[in-house]
UniProtKB/TrEMBL annotation:
<keyword id="KW-0413">Isomerase</keyword>
<dbReference type="InterPro" id="IPR001509">
    <property type="entry name" value="Epimerase_deHydtase"/>
</dbReference>
<dbReference type="InterPro" id="IPR050177">
    <property type="entry name" value="Lipid_A_modif_metabolic_enz"/>
</dbReference>
<dbReference type="Pfam" id="PF01370">
    <property type="entry name" value="Epimerase"/>
</dbReference>
<protein>
    <submittedName>
        <fullName>UDP-glucose 4-epimerase</fullName>
        <ecNumber>5.1.3.2</ecNumber>
    </submittedName>
</protein>
<feature type="domain" description="NAD-dependent epimerase/dehydratase">
    <location>
        <begin position="4"/>
        <end position="201"/>
    </location>
</feature>
<dbReference type="GO" id="GO:0003978">
    <property type="term" value="F:UDP-glucose 4-epimerase activity"/>
</dbReference>
<dbReference type="InterPro" id="IPR036291">
    <property type="entry name" value="NAD(P)-bd_dom_sf"/>
</dbReference>
């Protein structure tokens, strides 16, 4: 029996892993606590084998007024929680880091993969996540396993990230460029499998989970429009427009740029539960699509 404490409530990832683990009551007990005030320090962490830290402020804005909050929650609280867990005798700590620590997307004509050892966060959000990531790694010891998960974009039904936003906008894209950019992403079910594998096997270290395939922005739009029963036309001439706009707009670069992890032989957290097309449909329609195709 593995005892898991999720620090942070109502998060997309935390709720997803909890919903999976409680399917196996003979193997896991799962609790979660709110981290919004200091009451969490009254909680007895010594009862648990794993602390899975998901509490954090999402990257919702580059407003400088939020900088202090990013550091307070994403850095200071994360480090404090890890220290508290270690001092309480917890044996394993899992921290949700982010690909954002590597900086912005490359322009779509730059296909160079991420250098996993070269950090370049450009926002307070990214800098706060990196600071926590590196400091928590230092707590690794013979009696305290640390697992750092540097997730790319996570998507699935109920997610609030850019993937879902792009799907909502897809109905307006009758014409799309032929750009085939590459982005590392991970469907939520695949991420849950990765986290479960870390727990089941007591893995420690830095991990880079992703789908086995890279995702193209245009393909997200086209596949979503298929679900909407809408045709889409790919026009090569639009590539020139995107190239020109990307010279001046970071937002265009973020949408159509490249940002991906190269896959290495020792990457053992890559899963293939569904095809790309299936994950697009599941993210858009959820259980409605699942029931119509798997029951």
């Amino acid at each position: 029996m593995k005892r898991i404490l999720i620090t942070g409530v109502n998060s997309f990832i935390g709720t997803s892993i909890e919903n999976e683990l409680i399917k196996y009551p003979m193997n896991y007990t799962v609790d979660s606590i709110d981290m919004k005030n200091n009451d969490w320090k009254k909680y007895d962490f010594s009862l648990y084998d794993y602390v899975f830290h998901v509490a954090g402020i999402a990257h919702v804005s580059n407003d400088k007024k939020l900088d202090d909050l990013y550091y307070k929650v994403n850095r200071d609280l994360a480090i404090e929680t890890a220290l508290y867990a270690k001092n309480s005798g917890v044996k394993n700590f899992i921290f949700m880091s982010s690909m954002i620590i590597y900086g912005e997307d490359n322009k779509y004509f730059n296909k160079k993969p991420i250098d996993r050892n070269s950090y370049n966060p450009t926002s307070a959000y990214g800098k706060s996540k990196l600071a926590a990531d590196l400091e928590i790694q230092k707590l690794q010891s013979d009696s305290f396993n640390v697992s750092i998960i540097r997730t790319p974009v996570v998507y699935g039904k109920g997610s609030k990230g850019n993937f879902t936003k792009l799907q909502k906008m897809a109905k307006y894209f009758l014409f799309v460029p032929t750009i085939k950019n590459q982005k590392s992403m991970i469907y939520i079910d695949n991420l849950v499998k990765a986290i479960k594998k870390i727990i089941d096997n007591g893995l420690s270290g830095v991990f880079y989970p992703q789908n086995s395939y890279y995702v193209s922005t245009v393909d997200i739009i086209v596949e979503t429009r298929k679900i909407m029963k809408k045709k889409t036309f790919r026009l090569r001439i639009l590539n020139i427009v995107i190239w020109f706009l990307s010279l001046f707009s970071k937002k265009i670069t973020k949408i159509f740029g490249n940002k991906y992890y190269q896959v290495f032989d020792d990457d053992n957290l890559i899963f293939d539960g569904y095809s790309f097309e299936e994950t697009v449909a599941l993210t858009y329609e959820g259980e409605k699509w699942r029931k119509s195709h798997f029951l």
